[in-house]
Write a structure and sequence with these properties.
- By secondary structure, the protein is mainly α.
- The chain is built from eleven helices and five strands.
- Helix 1 (about 1-25) packs antiparallel against helix 2, helix 1 (about 1-25) packs antiparallel against helix 10 (about 255-275) and helix 2 (about 30-50) packs antiparallel against helix 3 (about 55-75).
- It is flat.
Length: about 280
Amino acid sequence: MIEIIFLMVLALSFMTFAVFADFRYRIVPNWLNFSLIAFVLAFRFFYSLFNSDFNFLYQGLIGLGIFFLIGNGLYYGRMFAGGDAKLMIALGAILPFSESLPVNLQNFLLFFILFLFSGAFYGITASIFLFAGNHDECIREIKRQFWKNRKLFYLAIVFAAITLIFGFNFGNSILFYPGILILILPFFYIFAKTVDEKCLVRKMKTKNLTEGEWLYNDLKIGKKTIKARWEGINKEELKSIRKKFKEIKIRQGIPFTPAFLISFVLLVWFYFKGISILGLF
């Protein structure tokens, strides 16, 4: 049990630093994620060596491999930034609390369910606070987005009406829920788009730019065009931008590391309460 507590404390410590860095510098440093992986694997190795049983290490490596695939999938699927994906990978070495693979797989699934709900709650809450802090500009942007995306609302109303009519006519009340969901999705889209445009785009002096920043739009430098892409700017592009511009617009994401911390704390609480994924359903 002491080895599991050590892993939990180590993860909580590193994630606390990650949250601080994410809010302060808008980035989770590579050294933080990679050092967490190194510390965890080193601890698992020496603990296994001391106990002459390497299953504790093997479970960590399996978790690392599984989360490596998941983290990269979320990154290339443009759902995670690079730092978030690497933090997810690092957690893969932490989360195998058991020496039984089936039990660890259940822990992985439980973590993802907790992450899904806590991430959604955190994202919506953070967006509401950002909206409230830029209320006047956001209201004007919402009106503009409604007009710009009015066809989306017309389609949503039509499909929602068809779904609800089928549900009521054929006595299938379960269709009521997807009908309502189809109707409200455009509102969520407009809200998210408004927060993105008015709260997460800002001007920054190029001397303060760092590698990996997201450009708001493409930049033309001579015959070369630096694209506003998901991977962000690299070192060479950063040098070119600083020579050409004193200030540019960048796009920032909502710092998402708190969702990791909340999910892990909940997982630890469930662990000590003896609640598994099977106990939730």
